[in-house]
Amino acid sequence: MNKYDVAIIGGGPGGYVAAIRASQHGLKTVLVEKDQIGGTCLNIGCIPTKALVKNAELLHEIKNAKNRGIICDAPKVDMKAVLAMKNNVVKQLTGGVGALLKANGVTVFQGEANVISEHELTVQDHVITFENLIIATGSSNNIPPIPGLDMAGILTSTELLEMEAVPESLVIIGGGVIGCEFATVFSQFGSKVTVVEMQDALIPNMDLELSKGLKRSLTAAGVSVLTGCSVTKVEKNDDDYQVTIRGDKDTTISAACVMVSVGRKSNLAGLSKLPLTLERNYIQVDDEMATNLEHVYAIGDVTGKIQLAHVASAQGLVAADCIAGKKRKMSYEIVPSCIYTLPEIGSVGLSEQQARAAYDAITVGVFPMAACGKAVAMGQTTGFTKLIADEKSGKIIGCHIFGPNATEIISEAAAVMKAGGTLVDIAETIHAHPTINESMHEAAHVALKEPIHMM
Ligand SMILES: NC(=O)c1ccc[n+]([C@@H]2O[C@H](COP(=O)([O-])OP(=O)(O)OC[C@H]3O[C@@H](n4cnc5c(N)ncnc54)[C@H](O)[C@@H]3O)[C@@H](O)[C@H]2O)c1
Q1: 405: closest CA among 417, 397, 413?
Q2: For 374, phi and psi rounded to 5 degrees?
Q3: Is 177 close to ligand 1, i.e. is its CB under 6 Å away?
Q4: What is the distance between the alpha carbons of residues 83 and 95, in angstroms, rounded to a whole number?
Q5: What is the pLDDT of residues 116-145, one digit of tens each?
Q6: Active site residue: 310, 400, 433, 445, which one?
Q7: For residue 376, which of 434, 443, 292, 334 has the smallest C-alpha distance?
Q8: Does the Cβ of 231 fall within 6 Å of ligand 1?
Q9: Is this prediction's pTM over 0.95?
Q10: Alpha helices per DSSP H over 333-453
Protein backbone atom coordinates (compact mmCIF):
# COMPACT_ATOMS: atom_id res chain seq x y z
CA MET A 1 0.00 0.00 0.00
CA ASN A 2 1.53 3.34 -1.09
CA LYS A 3 0.43 5.16 2.06
CA TYR A 4 3.17 7.01 3.95
CA ASP A 5 3.59 9.16 7.03
CA VAL A 6 6.10 11.32 5.16
CA ALA A 7 6.72 11.80 1.45
CA ILE A 8 9.79 13.72 0.38
CA ILE A 9 10.27 15.14 -3.10
CA GLY A 10 13.94 15.53 -4.00
CA GLY A 11 16.92 13.40 -2.98
CA GLY A 12 19.60 16.07 -2.51
CA PRO A 13 21.39 16.77 0.79
CA GLY A 14 18.14 18.29 2.13
CA GLY A 15 15.78 15.51 1.05
CA TYR A 16 17.88 12.42 1.73
CA VAL A 17 18.96 13.61 5.18
CA ALA A 18 15.31 14.43 6.06
CA ALA A 19 14.28 10.96 4.81
CA ILE A 20 16.85 9.15 6.96
CA ARG A 21 15.91 11.16 10.06
CA ALA A 22 12.14 10.71 9.47
CA SER A 23 12.62 6.96 9.14
CA GLN A 24 14.78 6.90 12.29
CA HIS A 25 11.80 8.50 14.09
CA GLY A 26 9.72 5.47 13.10
CA LEU A 27 7.79 7.31 10.38
CA LYS A 28 6.98 5.37 7.19
CA THR A 29 8.95 7.42 4.67
CA VAL A 30 9.13 7.58 0.87
CA LEU A 31 11.60 9.61 -1.17
CA VAL A 32 10.92 10.51 -4.80
CA GLU A 33 13.86 11.57 -6.99
CA LYS A 34 13.63 12.32 -10.72
CA ASP A 35 17.36 12.10 -11.49
CA GLN A 36 20.11 10.70 -9.32
CA ILE A 37 20.07 10.44 -5.54
CA GLY A 38 22.41 13.08 -4.11
CA GLY A 39 20.92 16.03 -6.01
CA THR A 40 22.95 18.94 -7.32
CA CYS A 41 25.55 18.67 -4.53
CA LEU A 42 26.69 15.11 -5.21
CA ASN A 43 26.06 14.91 -8.96
CA ILE A 44 26.71 18.31 -10.54
CA GLY A 45 27.76 20.64 -7.73
CA CYS A 46 29.90 20.52 -4.59
CA ILE A 47 31.43 17.06 -4.96
CA PRO A 48 32.40 16.92 -8.66
CA THR A 49 33.66 20.51 -8.44
CA LYS A 50 35.87 19.60 -5.49
CA ALA A 51 37.28 16.65 -7.46
CA LEU A 52 38.32 19.12 -10.18
CA VAL A 53 39.59 21.68 -7.64
CA LYS A 54 41.87 18.98 -6.19
CA ASN A 55 43.33 18.55 -9.70
CA ALA A 56 43.78 22.30 -10.03
CA GLU A 57 45.63 22.29 -6.69
CA LEU A 58 47.85 19.42 -7.86
CA LEU A 59 48.68 21.26 -11.09
CA HIS A 60 49.49 24.40 -9.13
CA GLU A 61 51.80 22.41 -6.81
CA ILE A 62 53.54 20.67 -9.71
CA LYS A 63 54.04 23.97 -11.56
CA ASN A 64 55.64 25.42 -8.41
CA ALA A 65 57.52 22.28 -7.36
CA LYS A 66 60.85 23.55 -8.64
CA ASN A 67 60.74 26.29 -5.97
CA ARG A 68 60.85 23.43 -3.45
CA GLY A 69 63.68 21.50 -5.09
CA ILE A 70 61.54 19.06 -7.05
CA ILE A 71 61.99 18.90 -10.79
CA CYS A 72 58.89 17.77 -12.73
CA ASP A 73 58.06 17.69 -16.39
CA ALA A 74 55.43 20.20 -17.48
CA PRO A 75 52.08 18.63 -16.47
CA LYS A 76 49.36 17.92 -19.05
CA VAL A 77 45.64 17.54 -18.46
CA ASP A 78 43.88 14.51 -19.97
CA MET A 79 40.33 15.78 -19.66
CA LYS A 80 38.71 12.43 -20.49
CA ALA A 81 40.62 10.76 -17.65
CA VAL A 82 39.78 13.68 -15.37
CA LEU A 83 36.07 13.15 -16.14
CA ALA A 84 36.36 9.42 -15.45
CA MET A 85 37.97 10.21 -12.07
CA LYS A 86 35.25 12.76 -11.28
CA ASN A 87 32.46 10.34 -12.31
CA ASN A 88 33.93 7.62 -10.09
CA VAL A 89 33.93 9.95 -7.10
CA VAL A 90 30.28 10.85 -7.78
CA LYS A 91 29.28 7.20 -8.28
CA GLN A 92 30.92 6.15 -5.04
CA LEU A 93 29.14 8.81 -3.01
CA THR A 94 25.69 8.53 -4.64
CA GLY A 95 25.91 4.75 -4.21
CA GLY A 96 26.75 5.31 -0.55
CA VAL A 97 23.69 7.51 -0.04
CA GLY A 98 21.47 4.91 -1.78
CA ALA A 99 22.78 2.28 0.65
CA LEU A 100 22.14 4.56 3.65
CA LEU A 101 18.53 5.15 2.55
CA LYS A 102 18.00 1.41 2.15
CA ALA A 103 19.61 0.60 5.51
CA ASN A 104 17.33 3.15 7.17
CA GLY A 105 14.20 1.62 5.60
CA VAL A 106 13.37 4.54 3.30
CA THR A 107 11.40 3.58 0.16
CA VAL A 108 12.83 5.28 -2.92
CA PHE A 109 10.87 5.93 -6.12
CA GLN A 110 12.76 6.98 -9.24
CA GLY A 111 10.75 9.42 -11.36
CA GLU A 112 9.21 12.87 -11.47
CA ALA A 113 6.77 13.57 -8.64
CA ASN A 114 3.55 15.35 -9.52
CA VAL A 115 1.44 16.48 -6.57
CA ILE A 116 -2.22 15.89 -7.52
CA SER A 117 -3.91 16.89 -4.25
CA GLU A 118 -2.93 18.07 -0.78
CA HIS A 119 -2.31 14.45 0.30
CA GLU A 120 -1.42 12.64 -2.94
CA LEU A 121 1.28 12.59 -5.55
CA THR A 122 1.98 10.48 -8.58
CA VAL A 123 5.31 9.10 -9.71
CA GLN A 124 5.32 7.10 -12.91
CA ASP A 125 2.22 4.83 -12.58
CA HIS A 126 2.06 4.95 -8.80
CA VAL A 127 -0.19 7.05 -6.60
CA ILE A 128 1.40 7.84 -3.24
CA THR A 129 -0.70 9.02 -0.31
CA PHE A 130 1.03 11.00 2.43
CA GLU A 131 0.19 12.51 5.83
CA ASN A 132 3.11 14.98 5.59
CA LEU A 133 5.09 16.26 2.64
CA ILE A 134 8.62 17.69 2.57
CA ILE A 135 9.48 19.60 -0.61
CA ALA A 136 13.22 19.47 -1.28
CA THR A 137 13.24 20.11 -5.02
CA GLY A 138 16.26 22.44 -5.01
CA SER A 139 17.22 25.00 -7.61
CA SER A 140 18.65 25.24 -11.10
CA ASN A 141 20.92 27.65 -12.94
CA ASN A 142 19.35 30.98 -13.69
CA ILE A 143 20.01 32.39 -17.17
CA PRO A 144 19.45 36.17 -17.23
CA PRO A 145 17.67 37.77 -20.21
CA ILE A 146 20.85 39.01 -21.90
CA PRO A 147 20.71 38.80 -25.73
CA GLY A 148 22.55 35.69 -26.93
CA LEU A 149 22.55 33.73 -23.66
CA ASP A 150 19.70 31.55 -24.98
CA MET A 151 22.01 30.38 -27.81
CA ALA A 152 22.88 26.69 -28.06
CA GLY A 153 26.38 26.11 -26.68
CA ILE A 154 26.23 28.67 -23.86
CA LEU A 155 27.32 26.74 -20.77
CA THR A 156 26.40 26.55 -17.12
CA SER A 157 28.49 24.82 -14.45
CA THR A 158 26.60 21.59 -15.27
CA GLU A 159 27.98 21.42 -18.84
CA LEU A 160 31.41 22.72 -17.87
CA LEU A 161 31.73 19.70 -15.55
CA GLU A 162 31.35 17.47 -18.62
CA MET A 163 33.91 19.12 -20.95
CA GLU A 164 36.01 16.51 -22.73
CA ALA A 165 38.71 19.05 -23.62
CA VAL A 166 40.06 22.10 -21.86
CA PRO A 167 38.65 25.17 -23.65
CA GLU A 168 41.34 27.50 -24.97
CA SER A 169 39.45 30.48 -23.57
CA LEU A 170 36.49 30.89 -21.27
CA VAL A 171 34.38 33.89 -20.28
CA ILE A 172 32.56 33.44 -16.98
CA ILE A 173 29.56 35.72 -16.40
CA GLY A 174 29.16 36.20 -12.63
CA GLY A 175 31.99 36.39 -10.11
CA GLY A 176 30.18 34.66 -7.25
CA VAL A 177 30.99 31.30 -5.71
CA ILE A 178 30.55 29.17 -8.85
CA GLY A 179 32.30 31.70 -11.09
CA CYS A 180 35.37 31.93 -8.84
CA GLU A 181 35.66 28.15 -8.29
CA PHE A 182 35.46 27.41 -12.03
CA ALA A 183 37.87 30.27 -12.82
CA THR A 184 40.32 28.60 -10.38
CA VAL A 185 39.93 25.18 -12.00
CA PHE A 186 40.06 26.15 -15.66
CA SER A 187 42.85 28.72 -15.29
CA GLN A 188 45.03 26.01 -13.70
CA PHE A 189 43.95 23.56 -16.44
CA GLY A 190 45.30 26.04 -19.02
CA SER A 191 42.30 28.07 -20.24
CA LYS A 192 42.55 31.83 -20.68
CA VAL A 193 39.78 32.82 -18.26
CA THR A 194 37.92 36.13 -17.96
CA VAL A 195 35.45 36.70 -15.11
CA VAL A 196 32.84 39.43 -15.58
CA GLU A 197 31.19 40.54 -12.34
CA MET A 198 28.46 43.18 -12.21
CA GLN A 199 29.21 44.36 -8.65
CA ASP A 200 32.39 46.25 -7.69
CA ALA A 201 33.87 43.16 -6.00
CA LEU A 202 34.03 39.41 -6.56
CA ILE A 203 31.95 37.37 -4.05
CA PRO A 204 30.28 40.69 -3.19
CA ASN A 205 28.36 39.49 -0.13
CA MET A 206 31.46 38.41 1.77
CA ASP A 207 34.04 40.34 3.83
CA LEU A 208 35.68 42.87 1.50
CA GLU A 209 39.19 41.70 2.41
CA LEU A 210 38.30 38.21 1.11
CA SER A 211 37.03 39.69 -2.17
CA LYS A 212 40.19 41.76 -2.60
CA GLY A 213 42.48 38.83 -1.75
CA LEU A 214 40.65 36.55 -4.15
CA LYS A 215 40.85 39.09 -6.98
CA ARG A 216 44.62 39.37 -6.40
CA SER A 217 45.18 35.60 -6.38
CA LEU A 218 43.00 34.93 -9.43
CA THR A 219 44.78 37.74 -11.29
CA ALA A 220 48.16 36.27 -10.30
CA ALA A 221 46.99 32.92 -11.75
CA GLY A 222 46.39 34.66 -15.08
CA VAL A 223 42.62 35.24 -14.79
CA SER A 224 41.35 38.51 -16.13
CA VAL A 225 38.90 39.84 -13.50
CA LEU A 226 36.50 42.55 -14.66
CA THR A 227 34.46 43.91 -11.74
CA GLY A 228 31.79 46.59 -12.05
CA CYS A 229 31.14 45.29 -15.57
CA SER A 230 28.09 43.76 -17.21
CA VAL A 231 27.64 41.71 -20.34
CA THR A 232 25.26 43.38 -22.77
CA LYS A 233 25.18 40.73 -25.49
CA VAL A 234 26.81 37.53 -26.71
CA GLU A 235 27.11 36.67 -30.39
CA LYS A 236 28.66 33.75 -32.24
CA ASN A 237 31.26 34.24 -34.98
CA ASP A 238 32.51 31.09 -36.70
CA ASP A 239 33.86 29.02 -33.78
CA ASP A 240 34.09 31.73 -31.14
CA TYR A 241 31.69 33.73 -29.01
CA GLN A 242 31.94 37.52 -28.99
CA VAL A 243 31.06 38.84 -25.54
CA THR A 244 30.25 42.54 -25.37
CA ILE A 245 31.00 44.06 -21.98
CA ARG A 246 29.95 47.40 -20.56
CA GLY A 247 32.28 48.85 -17.93
CA ASP A 248 34.44 51.95 -17.58
CA LYS A 249 34.98 51.48 -21.30
CA ASP A 250 33.08 49.04 -23.51
CA THR A 251 34.99 46.02 -24.82
CA THR A 252 34.33 42.86 -26.77
CA ILE A 253 36.09 39.65 -25.79
CA SER A 254 36.35 36.63 -28.03
CA ALA A 255 36.20 33.22 -26.30
CA ALA A 256 35.79 29.54 -27.15
CA CYS A 257 33.27 29.05 -24.32
CA VAL A 258 30.95 31.16 -22.20
CA MET A 259 29.66 30.03 -18.79
CA VAL A 260 26.82 31.72 -16.92
CA SER A 261 26.88 31.68 -13.09
CA VAL A 262 24.69 34.52 -11.86
CA GLY A 263 22.68 32.68 -9.21
CA ARG A 264 19.97 30.05 -9.19
CA LYS A 265 16.16 29.77 -9.38
CA SER A 266 13.78 27.51 -7.46
CA ASN A 267 12.46 24.23 -8.91
CA LEU A 268 8.67 24.31 -8.55
CA ALA A 269 7.57 21.81 -11.23
CA GLY A 270 4.85 19.37 -10.14
CA LEU A 271 3.75 21.52 -7.18
CA SER A 272 1.11 23.77 -8.78
CA LYS A 273 -1.81 21.94 -7.09
CA LEU A 274 -0.54 23.08 -3.68
CA PRO A 275 -1.66 26.63 -2.75
CA LEU A 276 1.77 27.51 -1.33
CA THR A 277 2.82 31.02 -0.37
CA LEU A 278 5.71 32.09 -2.60
CA GLU A 279 7.94 35.13 -2.57
CA ARG A 280 10.15 35.81 -5.59
CA ASN A 281 9.17 32.23 -6.56
CA TYR A 282 10.66 30.71 -3.39
CA ILE A 283 8.47 28.71 -0.98
CA GLN A 284 7.95 30.62 2.25
CA VAL A 285 8.62 28.68 5.45
CA ASP A 286 8.76 29.37 9.18
CA ASP A 287 11.60 28.37 11.53
CA GLU A 288 10.21 24.83 11.75
CA MET A 289 10.39 24.62 7.94
CA ALA A 290 6.57 24.53 7.72
CA THR A 291 4.87 26.23 4.78
CA ASN A 292 1.46 27.93 4.98
CA LEU A 293 -0.08 24.42 4.65
CA GLU A 294 0.02 22.68 8.02
CA HIS A 295 1.30 19.31 6.77
CA VAL A 296 3.64 20.60 4.03
CA TYR A 297 7.26 21.48 4.77
CA ALA A 298 9.96 22.85 2.45
CA ILE A 299 13.74 22.72 2.85
CA GLY A 300 16.88 23.62 0.91
CA ASP A 301 17.38 25.91 -2.08
CA VAL A 302 13.64 25.95 -2.93
CA THR A 303 13.05 28.05 0.22
CA GLY A 304 15.45 30.78 -0.97
CA LYS A 305 17.19 30.94 2.41
CA ILE A 306 20.94 30.28 2.34
CA GLN A 307 21.61 28.10 -0.73
CA LEU A 308 24.17 25.73 0.75
CA ALA A 309 24.08 21.92 1.00
CA HIS A 310 24.84 21.92 4.73
CA VAL A 311 22.00 24.39 5.38
CA ALA A 312 19.60 22.15 3.42
CA SER A 313 20.67 19.15 5.54
CA ALA A 314 20.20 21.10 8.78
CA GLN A 315 16.74 22.22 7.58
CA GLY A 316 15.92 18.60 6.66
CA LEU A 317 16.69 17.43 10.20
CA VAL A 318 14.53 20.22 11.68
CA ALA A 319 11.60 19.37 9.36
CA ALA A 320 11.79 15.64 10.14
CA ASP A 321 12.07 16.29 13.90
CA CYS A 322 9.09 18.68 13.84
CA ILE A 323 6.94 16.20 11.91
CA ALA A 324 7.83 13.56 14.52
CA GLY A 325 6.65 15.93 17.27
CA LYS A 326 10.15 16.82 18.47
CA LYS A 327 9.66 20.52 17.76
CA ARG A 328 12.75 22.69 17.30
CA LYS A 329 13.68 25.72 15.26
CA MET A 330 16.19 26.40 12.49
CA SER A 331 18.75 29.13 13.18
CA TYR A 332 20.79 30.83 10.44
CA GLU A 333 23.03 32.86 12.73
CA ILE A 334 26.10 30.63 12.54
CA VAL A 335 26.47 29.14 9.07
CA PRO A 336 30.02 28.58 7.82
CA SER A 337 30.45 29.11 4.10
CA CYS A 338 33.41 27.94 2.06
CA ILE A 339 34.79 28.73 -1.37
CA TYR A 340 37.19 26.27 -2.96
CA THR A 341 39.63 28.57 -4.67
CA LEU A 342 43.44 28.75 -4.42
CA PRO A 343 43.84 29.61 -1.62
CA GLU A 344 40.56 28.56 -0.05
CA ILE A 345 38.05 30.76 1.74
CA GLY A 346 36.22 29.92 4.98
CA SER A 347 33.83 32.41 6.48
CA VAL A 348 31.29 32.51 9.32
CA GLY A 349 29.26 35.23 10.99
CA LEU A 350 29.35 38.92 10.21
CA SER A 351 31.75 40.50 7.74
CA GLU A 352 33.79 43.41 9.11
CA GLN A 353 31.51 45.80 7.19
CA GLN A 354 28.34 44.21 8.64
CA ALA A 355 29.85 44.09 12.15
CA ARG A 356 30.76 47.80 12.06
CA ALA A 357 27.17 48.60 11.06
CA ALA A 358 25.58 46.31 13.67
CA TYR A 359 27.73 46.95 16.78
CA ASP A 360 28.73 50.10 18.70
CA ALA A 361 32.38 48.99 18.73
CA ILE A 362 34.20 45.93 17.44
CA THR A 363 37.68 44.47 17.81
CA VAL A 364 39.39 43.00 14.77
CA GLY A 365 42.48 40.78 14.75
CA VAL A 366 44.13 39.84 11.46
CA PHE A 367 47.03 37.41 11.30
CA PRO A 368 48.84 36.99 7.96
CA MET A 369 49.58 33.48 6.68
CA ALA A 370 53.09 34.74 5.89
CA ALA A 371 53.74 34.75 9.67
CA CYS A 372 52.31 31.26 10.24
CA GLY A 373 55.07 28.63 10.47
CA LYS A 374 53.07 25.81 8.87
CA ALA A 375 52.00 28.04 5.95
CA VAL A 376 55.63 29.06 5.38
CA ALA A 377 56.74 25.40 5.47
CA MET A 378 54.02 24.55 2.95
CA GLY A 379 55.01 27.47 0.71
CA GLN A 380 51.42 28.78 0.92
CA THR A 381 51.81 32.19 2.52
CA THR A 382 49.05 34.06 0.68
CA GLY A 383 46.15 35.11 2.87
CA PHE A 384 45.16 35.74 6.47
CA THR A 385 42.87 34.79 9.31
CA LYS A 386 40.60 37.54 10.60
CA LEU A 387 38.63 37.38 13.84
CA ILE A 388 35.95 39.93 14.66
CA ALA A 389 34.58 40.37 18.18
CA ASP A 390 32.13 42.62 19.98
CA GLU A 391 34.45 45.01 21.85
CA LYS A 392 32.26 45.10 24.96
CA SER A 393 31.81 41.37 25.56
CA GLY A 394 34.74 39.99 23.55
CA LYS A 395 32.32 37.52 21.93
CA ILE A 396 33.34 36.30 18.49
CA ILE A 397 30.86 37.58 15.88
CA GLY A 398 32.74 36.78 12.66
CA CYS A 399 35.73 34.92 11.26
CA HIS A 400 37.11 35.07 7.73
CA ILE A 401 40.00 32.95 6.53
CA PHE A 402 41.80 33.20 3.20
CA GLY A 403 44.50 30.58 3.08
CA PRO A 404 45.38 26.88 3.08
CA ASN A 405 42.85 24.60 4.86
CA ALA A 406 40.51 27.59 5.40
CA THR A 407 37.47 25.44 4.62
CA GLU A 408 38.39 23.00 7.38
CA ILE A 409 39.50 25.31 10.18
CA ILE A 410 36.55 27.70 9.85
CA SER A 411 34.55 25.15 11.87
CA GLU A 412 36.65 26.02 14.94
CA ALA A 413 35.30 29.58 14.80
CA ALA A 414 31.75 28.27 14.17
CA ALA A 415 31.96 26.00 17.24
CA VAL A 416 33.32 28.82 19.43
CA MET A 417 30.55 31.15 18.21
CA LYS A 418 27.87 28.50 18.87
CA ALA A 419 29.14 28.23 22.45
CA GLY A 420 29.11 32.05 22.82
CA GLY A 421 32.92 32.02 23.11
CA THR A 422 35.23 35.02 23.26
CA LEU A 423 38.65 36.10 21.97
CA VAL A 424 40.08 35.04 25.34
CA ASP A 425 38.58 31.54 24.93
CA ILE A 426 40.46 31.13 21.63
CA ALA A 427 43.65 32.76 22.94
CA GLU A 428 43.68 30.50 26.01
CA THR A 429 43.03 27.31 24.02
CA ILE A 430 46.28 25.50 23.24
CA HIS A 431 46.49 25.06 19.47
CA ALA A 432 48.74 22.34 18.07
CA HIS A 433 51.98 23.43 16.42
CA PRO A 434 52.68 23.62 13.56
CA THR A 435 49.19 24.00 12.09
CA ILE A 436 47.33 26.53 9.98
CA ASN A 437 44.87 26.61 12.89
CA GLU A 438 47.48 28.55 14.85
CA SER A 439 46.60 31.53 12.64
CA MET A 440 43.22 31.62 14.46
CA HIS A 441 45.00 31.49 17.83
CA GLU A 442 47.33 34.27 16.72
CA ALA A 443 44.46 36.39 15.31
CA ALA A 444 42.83 36.24 18.76
CA HIS A 445 46.10 37.42 20.33
CA VAL A 446 46.32 40.24 17.76
CA ALA A 447 42.74 41.34 18.56
CA LEU A 448 43.61 41.31 22.27
CA LYS A 449 46.64 43.49 21.42
CA GLU A 450 49.14 40.92 22.69
CA PRO A 451 50.50 39.31 19.52
CA ILE A 452 53.40 36.87 19.87
CA HIS A 453 54.47 36.15 16.30
CA MET A 454 53.75 39.58 14.85
CA MET A 455 55.27 42.97 15.44
N1 LIG B 1 31.45 26.22 -2.21
C2 LIG B 1 30.13 26.36 -2.10
O3 LIG B 1 29.59 26.34 -1.00
C4 LIG B 1 29.30 26.60 -3.32
C5 LIG B 1 29.81 26.30 -4.58
C6 LIG B 1 29.03 26.59 -5.69
C7 LIG B 1 27.77 27.14 -5.52
N8 LIG B 1 27.30 27.41 -4.29
C9 LIG B 1 26.00 28.08 -4.12
O10 LIG B 1 25.25 28.02 -5.30
C11 LIG B 1 24.55 29.22 -5.48
C12 LIG B 1 24.76 29.73 -6.89
O13 LIG B 1 26.11 30.15 -7.10
P14 LIG B 1 26.42 31.34 -8.09
O15 LIG B 1 27.88 31.57 -8.12
O16 LIG B 1 25.69 31.13 -9.38
O17 LIG B 1 25.65 32.56 -7.42
P18 LIG B 1 26.20 33.72 -6.46
O19 LIG B 1 25.00 34.41 -5.96
O20 LIG B 1 27.24 33.23 -5.52
O21 LIG B 1 26.98 34.69 -7.47
C22 LIG B 1 26.39 35.26 -8.59
C23 LIG B 1 27.20 36.47 -8.97
O24 LIG B 1 26.77 36.92 -10.25
C25 LIG B 1 26.74 38.34 -10.25
N26 LIG B 1 25.82 38.72 -11.32
C27 LIG B 1 24.47 38.67 -11.34
N28 LIG B 1 24.01 39.05 -12.55
C29 LIG B 1 25.09 39.35 -13.31
C30 LIG B 1 25.28 39.78 -14.65
N31 LIG B 1 24.23 39.97 -15.47
N32 LIG B 1 26.54 39.99 -15.10
C33 LIG B 1 27.61 39.78 -14.27
N34 LIG B 1 27.49 39.37 -13.01
C35 LIG B 1 26.25 39.14 -12.53
C36 LIG B 1 26.29 38.68 -8.85
O37 LIG B 1 26.64 40.01 -8.51
C38 LIG B 1 27.03 37.64 -8.01
O39 LIG B 1 28.30 38.08 -7.61
C40 LIG B 1 25.03 30.20 -4.43
O41 LIG B 1 24.05 30.35 -3.45
C42 LIG B 1 26.25 29.56 -3.87
O43 LIG B 1 26.44 29.84 -2.50
C44 LIG B 1 28.05 27.17 -3.19
Answers
A1: 413
A2: -65, -40
A3: yes
A4: 18
A5: 999 999 999 999 999 999 999 999 999 999
A6: 433
A7: 434
A8: yes
A9: yes
A10: 352-358, 373-378, 406-418, 423-427, 438-447
